[in-house]
Amino acid sequence: MAPAMTTQTRPTPANPDASTMRALLVATLLSGTFLLTGCAPITSVQPGTPAKDVVSKYGKPKVVCPQSDGSTRLVWTSQPAGEAAWATKMTIDKRVSGFQQVLNNAHFDVLNSGTWTAEMVRCEFGPPAEVESYPSGRNRGTVWSYHYMSPSGLFKLFNVNFGEDGQTVRSFDTDVDPERDPSMFGFSN
Known about the structure:
Layout: H1 18-37, H2 51-58, E1 63-66, E2 72-77, E3 85-90, E4 100-101, H3 105-108, H4 118-125, E5 130-134, E6 141-149, E7 155-162, E8 169-176
């Protein structure tokens, strides 16, 4: 009589096991850390540095918004893949003020003052990672979502909700980022 054959289920690229997913997540996070530490962060740029020096080191900003006082707001962002956006003011003499990370809970509250338009939000936070439109139903409008990292280390989304016109901010909120939630990879928070 022939010995009984046993079959083993092996992880495949289409169906990885938990240890494969953990290893992949760790490798991804470490590679991002090495890339970020490979050069000085943009927040180390000193106020008064010529804007051309910043551009030569970090590339062109994603957003350039002229201001009424003659200055220009510049925003560098890692969206849609990353969780950060840095903004500075370029003075009339083409020098930058200090850089500020704008994708954080404290800075989101700026939307509580006055009426905000889509262009004002873009100039404040940079372009969103995702845009979704809801053409019908009670909550008609558009939602811009930004990926960010909370102080506790959770991957989150900052959602800016525009009214039916798609141009005026109706509300904003934050939520766990379902695409980056570690529990999806077998980890618990």
